[in-house]
Structures are given as structure tokens and as C-alpha cells.
Amino acid sequence: MTKLKSECPICAETISVAQNIEASEIIQCPGCHNRIVVSSVNGDKVVLKEAPKIEEDWGQ
Amino acid sequence: MKLKTGLKLALLHSTIREDEKLIIREAEKNHLDLTILDARYQVFNPHSWQNYFDVILERCLSTTVGFQATLFFERLGMKVINSSIVANNCDNKFLTSLLLSEHKIPTIPFALVFNEDQAKQAVKQLGGYPLVIKPVSGSWGRLLAKVNDDDSLEGIIEQKQVLGSPMQKALYLQKYVNKPGRDIRVVVIANQVVCAIYRETSHWITNTARGAQAKNCKVDQKLSEICVKASSAVGGGILGIDIFETDKRFLVNEINHTMEYKNVQRVTGVNVAAEIIHFCQEVAKS
Ligand SMILES: Nc1ncnc2c1ncn2[C@@H]1O[C@H](COP(=O)(O)OP(=O)(O)O)[C@@H](O)[C@H]1O
Ligand SMILES: [Mg+2]
Ligand SMILES: [Zn+2]
Q1: pTM, whole model, 2 decimals?
Q2: Where is the ATP-grasp domain positioned along the sequence (chain B) (predicted)?
């Protein structure tokens, strides 16, 4: 599958993501290992943002 | 997307995990009309809300976000899976325990207290140490404490009272159960067992989020019966039931209403996402 390219908002490393990535998905930056959230996907334009901190009421 | 059934489904979330992606892919495969809604970016105003869905699958990572959104959609007359009643019954571990004991379903002896003196009385009532203190609403095996003696009980309670949020000050106590290096997670949908895994680890906390290994678990008649009863006790729907094994019997520990199931799907080979979608369609049609 072809990959889309974007940039880490923290360390500016180029990150390639799968084409079927979804907005609001969380990934890990291979450069700085921070958690990054997919802010939006528009065609082949993927915008990444720093992911929110894990909260007490998350998950099960 | 081409509509096949004409039903409008929504996936309500607050972060897309692998679990949600499995649902999205399954819906695509079946050409379903699925709207992906991030609850964090909606305005929940009944006077301006425009969208109608036949069923909303609530899969929020944040329990708080998921619960408020569920209340909203239910009051607008939409069906939400799981319902706010089921969500509340499961989110609150004390309430789950009360429901299980009310329905005479084997569970772990428990008590809820707010202070050290009452905690010590509860320890006696529960038959002594060790026991486990946990938040009434918690997840991923976080903020649990195994308490072996009065000294640690006093320390833990003081820490919670001084440093904890108000919810952490409700002290939910359970007798500690000596598990055989694993517990069981059973997926139950519409009061029927779908599949199950063992969660194996040398640590007493067996959440896969804490590193336990998932292995396929065959569900026998006895386990199936207790899970079906536990599911009905909290109101049914899509549930992940945590079970402990003891020499004599199975005990229900807790029930999850927006279970993570990617590990279950991977090791059992059962397409849980497909079962979830199927159940949503059934509810939408009903
Ligand atoms: N009373 C107990 N006795 C023994 N182990 C326990 C007990 N309560 C919890 N655990 C262990 O901790 C894990 C997490 O506890 P649980 O009540 O399921 O909370 P969470 O919502 O964090 O998953 C359980 O799966 C089990 O391995
Ligand atoms: Mg659990
Ligand atoms: Zn980075």
C-alpha cells in the first residue's frame, strides 16, 4: 500500500502513514517516540498534532 | 458509500484505536452507511442537532465523553449501544458488584467505605488481608493497590485522601483472589458468549494494557452460563466480562461496556468487529 507523508509536530521528522489512516488515530513518532494524533486527513494531506495526555477516565 | 440496508449507523468515538478501525473496515466491507463522529468536536445542543442515526455505537476512549454523548442521543430518541443504563452499571464497579450480588451471580466479596476506620471494619468483614483497593471507576489496571496489612492500608488511604480527586476518595475494597497466573476476558454480545481469552502474566494485575499475554480460551457450559447471567444483570449489549478462576468456581470481577477487543480478535480468530456490526444492525432494525 502506498504511504502518505507528513511531519512530526514535535521533532519535525518526516513520518509516513498508511493510506487508510483515520482522523483522531494516535500514532507514535519513530523519531522522538512521542504520541502523535492524526488531526485531519484530506486527500493525501495528513496533518499531525501532539496527542492529548492520557486521562484517568480513558479506556477499560 | 453505497447504502445496502438503508440503515444509518454512527461510530461515536474520542480517538480512533485499532478496535475502532476494525469496525470501520468491517462497515466498509459490508457497504454500510457509517458516520464517524468524534464526540469531542460536536455541539450537543438538542435545538440545533441535525443528524439522525438508526443506531449509535458508543466507542469513546473517554468514559466521561462517551457517557454525556450517550445521554444526549438517547434523549433525542436515538438508540445507543451500549445504553446509558448499561454504561453506568458497568462503569461503576461498586454498582456492578451490587447488581451481581443482587442477582446471586458468583462475585468477589466487596465493600465501599470513605474512611480508614470503616476500611478496617470492612477488612474484618471480608475475612482479613490481602485485599485490593480500587477506584470505583478505573481502567487498564491503573490505581489498584493490593493491601497486605494495616500499615499499607493506612498509607494508601491517606495518600488517596490527600492527593486524590473526589472520586478516588470512594474506597472500593475487594477480597484478593489468588488467581492461577491468569484471568479470563469473555466477550458477550446480546447475552451470548462470542469468544474468550486468557490473560496470562506472573503479575497479579492481568490487563493486556499492563503486559499480560492473550491466549485463546475455550468457554465451557459453566463459564458460559455465568457470563450470560452477568450480562443480563447489567442490561446486556456489547460487553467484556472479567472472570477469575478459583478451585471451586468462576467469579465475575468486573464488566466493561466499551471493551477493547483487538487482542481477543487476534488470538481467537473470531471476527468480533463483524459481530459488533451485526448486533448494531439488528438493534437498528428493531
Ligand atoms: N480482587 C482481586 N483479586 C485479584 N486480582 C485482582 C482483583 N481485582 C483486580 N485484580 C487484577 O487486576 C486487574 C484489573 O482489575 P479490574 O477490576 O479489572 O480493573 P480495570 O478496570 O483496571 O481492568 C484484574 O484483571 C486482575 O488481574
Ligand atoms: Mg478489567
Ligand atoms: Zn517526532
Answers
A1: 0.94
A2: 97-281
